[in-house]
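Weekly modeling sync, notes
Attendees: S.R. (lead), two postdocs, one rotation student

Agenda item 3: backlog of single-chain predictions. S.R. asked that every request posted to the team notebook include the full sequence so nobody has to chase files. The rotation student volunteered to paste the first one in as an example of the format we agreed on. Action items at the bottom.

Example entry:
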Amino acid sequence: MREPLWGVSVSTMDAKAHLVPDPIPTPPPSRRRNDAAEPRVLRPRRAAPSDCVRPTRAEVNLAALRHNLRVLERHAGTAQVWPVLKADGYGHGAPAVARTLERAGAKGFCVALVEEAIELRDAGIRAPILVMGGYYGDAHEEILERELIPVVYDPAHLEAFARAALALERPAHVHVKIDTGMARLGVRYDALAPFLDSLASHAAEIEVTGLMTHLSCAEMGQLGVSPEATTEQLARFEVACAEMARHGVRPAVRHAANSAAVLRGDGLFDVVRPGVSVFGFAPRLGGDGPSLSTELRPVMRVRTEVVDVRSLGVGEPVGYGATFRTSRPSRIATVPMGYADGMSRAVSNRGAVLVRGRRAPIVGAVSMDMAMIDVTDIPGVTLRDEVVVLGAQSGPSGSDVITVDEVAEAVGTIGWEVMTDLSRRVPRFYREP
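Predicted structure, as returned to the notebook:
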């Protein structure tokens, strides 16, 4: 019998673990718009667990999320932790993640897009939300109406938010970004003087409540020794902050540290901005060295089920292009997950999944909606057996884990991309142990 979608124990987890729904509250009405009017900024809809038919899903452990927040708070010292929830909370589902973290004590959040910030406000998040991307379209008034904090670094930003502030008859609160060596966004030091002149001309409309920069090499160098690039960037940031202070810009909040910097203790000003570490993925020293933390717990587990098992003889092809042929009598199982869901085509014939607690190699080319696995060496595999694509599994044939690092290595990418590649058509289920 097919299990209900909510409130039932997960057979391969602890018997007390339950999956809980993620209700999204009705958005509060705008203070200025007719309630019947269409909102200006819309967001794409994620597949809802209540609509789930196929067994492919991502399970998000909210207890692990809270644990990681506590670890990061300890590393941050007196600085506030503002988790970065861009890219749908690194693929974990930003609204539910934000609600959990806000209740657990997170003081603010960071996103890249206006749309992401509005999604959090519509989900009931009341903490400060920093919009870091720097592209605001014509949504300046809506940003201020929603009490979002834009990051600015160009006089054009100041002019647009000053107009919005005049229209709303209240000042715009902004954070100014300084480019200290990332060469991506931010005010360069040689452009700081004209930026400050523009800021002064809009002093009545714009209040700078924060200064920030972004570290480019925080995971490099040696353990216990700050990377030279980070030291240089922080020194440049201090010079820029001092220059702004001489012009009367002295906000109470400064921030620079990403996940690697927080775990190393670099750039711990008033706020820190950890991203992947919130979700249990610790950056590695130099990119492929030792992990910067062994305390963090993975938050996501991606699972599906066997939907077909068939026996093949020697030399039979599997999948598009016949990139795999059996070298022995084989049992090949099909799972309903493919590259449109976030299982990269690059794991074809090189990745693995877990079935009954043992590794099963992915064979043949991963297709858009399905993939095939070789279960010849795993006794008793049958329809409806759970298949773990990412995370841990225990079963009658053993216990094992597929880590983000392992998948990233097989694909030839980084863990950030593995997590954010998980499609919105894969529903997220939220687990409260």
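Discussion: group reviewed the output briefly. The chain has eleven helices and 21 strands.
Action items: rotation student to repeat for the remaining queue; S.R. to check formatting next week.
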